[in-house]
Specification:
Shape: elongated
Number of helices: 11
Radius of gyration: 23 Å
Strand content: 5-15%
Strand order of the largest sheet: 3-2-1-4-5-6
Order of helices and strands: HHEHEHEHHEHEHEHHH
Helix content: 40-55%
CATH class of the largest domain: Alpha Beta
């Protein structure tokens, strides 16, 4: 019990020490080391026409905010800078509230302090699980006809109710769950045609989502993974946002975790070897 408390104390103290020192103690990734998935994601956003609507699915749980908020705010800031109309939806109960929180975090960034970002619509919750998502892919205006302010979004410019998902220049899914990502890929992806489907995922979901990006034909156009992906995206943008500000604490904590695992492994092997030696010696005397 004491050892667990001690390990927790080490991580907490290390994180506070990193925050106290300020950022830029650990070098950011160089542009040449940016993951290909992040580069493709960034390029797809760059290619969007100015002002085009973008659908963003906020499908992660609040417990993963520390990992995914920074990555989400990094690409949302890029979209906002292009004048994109961001339309939020979610297949989770907490999603609509998290979407509002992301907008608040975005407006705390230096680029939006003077002119807050307001060009967004929060469409709320998509009911029905996988079946509801499939129905949304075919007729979004029927599944969610109004936003959270009870406005009929699909009948006002720049939307055209007859176009369905064709109204959007891109679809982005933010999730920590590989099954949720797969549902969007399998249920919504086939209805998109040439519209890019991008993913912002946690480190635990990335191994199961990566094949959809790396495979042929490619079903995911770009992928940003966790805090490290958010930092890489900010490097491409030449900005210092939420992800970069947490980079030192993240890097130091990760290094400590590796050291603790190695020390624990050595201690465990040593203890086991010593126990086996004592047991063998006792049996020899007997």
């Amino acid at each position: 019990m004491l050892s667990r408390i001690g390990i927790l104390a080490v991580f907490v103290l290390a994180s506070f020490f990193a925050l106290w020192l300020g950022d830029k103690q650990v070098p950011l990734p160089s542009p040449g080391l940016i993951p290909r998935g992040v580069q493709d994601f960034h390029d797809q956003v760059n290619e969007l026409p100015a002002g085009v609507p973008v659908l963003v699915a906020v499908d992660y749980e609040p417990g993963f905010s520390g990992e995914l908020d920074g990555a989400a705010v990094s690409f949302l800031g890029h979209l906002a800078g292009k004048g994109s109309l961001i339309t939020f939806v979610s297949t989770t109960y907490n999603g609509p509230a998290l979407a509002q929180r992301l907008v608040q975090e975005l407006n705390r960034q230096p680029a939006f302090l003077q002119t807050p970002f307001t060009n967004y619509k929060n469409m709320g919750y998509i009911p029905g699980g996988v079946t509801g998502l499939a129905a949304f892919a075919q007729a979004p205006e029927m599944v969610i006809p109004y936003d959270l302010q009870a406005n009929s979004v699909w009948t006002t410019a720049p939307f055209d109710s007859s176009q369905g998902l064709g109204n959007f220049g891109m679809v982005v899914v933010i999730t920590q769950d590989a099954d949720t990502a797969r549902n969007w890929i399998e249920q919504v992806g086939p209805e998109l045609g040439d519209i890019p489907l991008q993913m912002v995922v946690s480190a635990q979901a990335e191994p199961l989502v990566q094949p959809y990006y790396a495979g042929i034909p490619r079903q995911v156009s770009g992928i940003v993974t966790g805090l490290a992906g958010g930092v890489a995206y900010e490097v491409l943008e030449g900005s210092s946002g939420m992800a970069s500000q947490a980079w030192d604490a993240y890097s130091i904590s990760l290094t400590l975790a590796v050291i603790i695992i190695l020390v624990g492994g050595v201690f465990g092997v040593s203890s086991f070897t010593l126990t086996q030696y004592k047991q063998a010696k006792a049996e020899g005397k007997a």
